[in-house]
Each structure stands twice: as structure tokens, then as C-alpha cells.
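Subject — a protein and its fold
Fields — amino acid sequence, C-alpha cells
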Amino acid sequence: MAIGPKLDLRQTQGLVMTPQLQQAIKLLQLSNLELAEYLKEELEKNPLLEIEDSSNQEAEGAEKEFVESQNQLDKIQEMDQKKRKEEEKGVKEAPLDADYDNIWTGNEFSDVGKGGSSDFSGSDDFSYEKTLSDEKSLRDHLQEQLLLTFGHEDEDSIAIGMALIDRLSPAGYLREAIDEIAFSLGVKEEKVDVVLAKMKGFDPTGIFARDLNECLALQLQEKNRFDPAMEKLVENLDMLGNHEHEKLMKICGVDLEDLRDMLKELKALNPKPASLFDDLIVQTAIADVIIRPQKTDMGMGWIIELNPATLPKALVNKRYYDEICEYAHNEKEKSYVDEQFANASWLVRAMDQRAQTIMKVASEIIRQQDAFFAYGLEYLKPMVLKDIAEKIEMHESTVSRVTTGKYIGTPRGLFELKFFFTSGVSSQDGGMAHSSEAIKARIKKLIDEEDPKKPLSDESIAQTLQDEDKIDIARRTVAKYREALGLSSSSKRKREKASIL
């Protein structure tokens, strides 16, 4: 049989990312603040689009109902407000593990610059030329690089990358443990490691570093200045704070002049890569969903509502469309009007679909985490994206987009929807697993109630959790959770409490 070129016709099915579909996906992942800005831009481009303002009376009514609901919860809760605040404070991000002031002083280091470096200036004058455009946020900048790196087809890597972006600290670090991220996404740790390794090469250099040392190392590697001596210096940054220059020279194998040059190079780096942008990884949080307790025949239930104050209603001005159609003089003008009408109609449908999807996901989260809303943090159950996706018959990537940057207002406080996705630790008796956040709350409670003269060691805490709570947990896991809470070791706590007493 002769080998040669030929034409072969085939019929296949595939998903095509139309502009409308891309718009729907974009709307789904926008926060309420980003959505408002996006609609503002669309209003300027499309004369047939209108936004109906929510009445102040409606918003005030929802606010009043939300405040009143806090009083109703008193009937089903045992914790007082002070205790809840302490628990919420405990699960916040741990403080940075290095003090920048040990290396950079206020008049030695500029927070603005380009790439991984910054311009040294003794002046406090602020230069707008050094900042990136207000129109592009750090999130947008990283998302663009993410799509360029993996392409639209690699949905798993894109979903993981988006999750990593959402977990960045205000300084640009990735503090959360890889195993917890992998567990919450329902993927293998190796897959997260592969995606993270590529994203550590994104601009600004140093972004996604695990700590200050790695942040500086990434910037030095880009400059091809991460030689063995510099590597030793970065590994021993704590000695700089203690002014142990003699030890540093010995460890790095350099003299005093070389050490001074190396320190100058360090000061030219940026310990906070996210500061290059005026965007806010941490934005003003406003509830997208509000829940209120309600008594039912079956017991205590929840009323779930979308927040009207953050839910702009997009409308198509059909009357104006009919009017301008009468004055369209040629096919080009008629085509333009029809195109704008189609775009406005699609946007209205996409907005409605976004609201329905948020409501659907939030309702299922509330159903699965009912005990948390009723009794507190210690009752938070381990949960992953797959648990919600399977129940509502949606893809995990859709659930990930919906829960990112969307907040729920509850009588217990304001929470991002992704807060409820936590890893779990198995139970000794084979029963229901315990969420990492619930265990952290329990650890904090034990430490708060410990004898100041005899602080509990990590081993003692682990034993207590095993005996009293039937949690199968190791000492090193307790240590990891304790450090994540920003709590010192038992020996250090003993010294701290002794000084107070």
C-alpha cells in the first residue's frame, strides 16, 4: 500500500470557548467589588445596557434583619462573643517568620520598583512612575501569566494556579502547607508542587515564595547572583538581626568588604513582591450571601439570601433599542445595534446565572457545615471542593471560582466561602474526621487554659486530643498547627507568661 498525503474528513465534538462563555466564566470568579467595576466599564461601552440601583431602603432592611439575627442565635449557642473573637483571631494567618527591620530600615528600602528590585532613595517622596498601572491588579497580572504558561486546555493546572493565587499573603508569600492545599482541591501534592514550581518563575520575582529566605533566593537566582556565599548568607538571615558579622564572614567564606557588598545586594531586593502593585489581595470584604437563623417545625434552620446591596441588576433597555433601530440608516449601523443588544442580553443572562450559582454553592456549604454555624469553630467539618461539586452536579473548577472572593455574612462573623474547605485528621474510632481548623481551635483553647507555670508541650496536647477528642494526631502535626496559629513553644510560653506574672 502506497504511503502518501490524503484528505480525511472527520466529525468530532469539542468545547469551544466562545467570547460569551469566557465572559460567563470571568463573571463567576469576580468578587462583588470587581463585578461593580466590570459593569461600570460595560455600561460605558454598551448604550443598551442599564444597571438598576438597589434601593437604600431594601439594603437597610437587609442590614437590620442581619443584625437582629445575631440576637436569635443566642438561643442555640454557648460561646460568648469574646470567646468567638479569640477563636477567629486564632485561625488568621500566622505572623511572618522574619523581621524585615533587622535587614531593611525605613529609610534604606523602597517598597516600589520593578521586577525583584527597588530603587534606593533616602527621600520619602513617592513617585507614581514607579508604580504599576491601577488598571491591572496583581491578581490579573498573575492570571495572565498562568494562562500563558498552561493554556486554557489544562483546566486542572489552571484551577490549582487560581487556588494558589487566592492563598497569597498581602506581602506575596504562600504560607499554607502544600498538603492542605492539595487536600482542599482534591488533587495529589505532586501536582500542586509542579504548578507551584512554574509559578515561582512569574513576575514579580519572588512571588509565591514560602518565606523571606526563598523570596530573596528567587530574586538572586534571576540576577544570576545566587552563588554559594550568597546562599549561605540567605540561609542565615537571623544572624544579620543579631549583628553576628564575624560568624557570617566565616560561614560565607568572605571578608568584611565582600560581606558589605553582599548586604548592599540584599537591600536592593524586595522582601514584599506584592507591594509592587496597588491592587489589594486583601480587599474590603462585603457579604455576597447572608444567613439568618430561623425556628422551624424540624428545629433550628437557616434563611439564606443574596445580599441586595452587592447584587447589581443588569437590564436591557428594549425601548431604546426599538427607537434607535428606526433611525439606523444602513446595514452597518443596524448590525452594530443588533450586536450591542445581543451582548447586553447575554450579560443579563450571565449575571442571573452567576447569582444562581453562588446561591446554589452557598446553600450546599451551609447544609454540610450546619454544626459550625450553630455551635462554632470546633464543629467545622473537613470538606473539599469535590464534596460540594458532586452534590450540586457542577465541576470542581466552577465551585472553586464561586468560593473565591465571595463572602458569607453569618451571626458568627464574615467568612470567605473557601474558608469552609479544610483538610481533615482521622478519628481514632473510625468515626467522622476532624477538620484542621477545628483542631486548631481546640489547640488554642487548651493553650489558653493551661497552667502558666506548667505550659503544655506539643506531646501533651497531642495526647489530650487523642484521649479526650479521639483525634488520631501526631506531635509534629500539633506543632505545625500551633505555629500556624502564631503560638510559641511551651518553653517560650513559660518564659513569656513568667515575665507577665
About this structure: Residues 55-85, 87-135, 279-283 have pLDDT under 50 and may be disordered. The longest helix spans residues 331-368. Residues 102 and 243 are 9 Å apart (CA to CA).
